[in-house]
């Protein structure tokens, strides 16, 4: 599975800050939405895609109803961090090389030539990348290519609900801090970082097929397809990174979500996180179900028995 999928599946909200009109989609996206209940309140879990198109709106009635029912919202990052002008600078600072070498010295000659070609086509001097770590360069390539395909971070599901929460006067908080998210990217092994650049260049040369496949799977609400076709591959090919990006963060989030369910009163919450965090045995949905909570998928368009 391309490491680029970490971004487009919504695993790292902070990545979208680095960032078209298309034809209207025929129907609202089928939501990746679950309701977790205890005796007096509920938490709605909504799987996000961080870069979307105008045609992905409006959302389904189930999602709008969950927002209306929620007294507060939670995201991977609090809105004041996610939407802060300081966020891109934080990523740039983390990405600066401190080892005394250049990116060209780290990459093999063939990859550097490919990067040089891509940069030239996009009006960027390739030497401007020399002071940055490979993960940041690979991420930049992916963002540039996805925005060219009409996917816009400003239209991502997180930003959409952050704006709605602000307009409705609903409090919103984060499950983690921005520095923690950036640290996940910055903590990638050197071999994974170099592979990230190669795969980003591969996808740039192939065009929009991979991104469109992910986007359409999200629009269909295809939880099983997203898991078996992408997350399972990532778990097999990059086990250490999968654990850092998915398992460890899910394990840290579950107690925070439980606090909402166990607190006095009947206030409900809507939690909007990257879609992959909700899928599979390592996902937040199954982790909460394993702790004894009632969990149901809310999706009128889904087949009977889909979770």
TrEMBL record:
CDD domains to which the protein is assigned, alphabetical: Tiki
Keyword Signal set for record: yes
Keywords: Signal
InterPro entries: TraB/PrgY/GumN_fam, YbaP-like
Top-level taxon in the UniProt lineage: Bacteria
Signal peptide limits: 1-19
Coiled coil: none
Protein name, UniProt field: TraB/GumN family protein
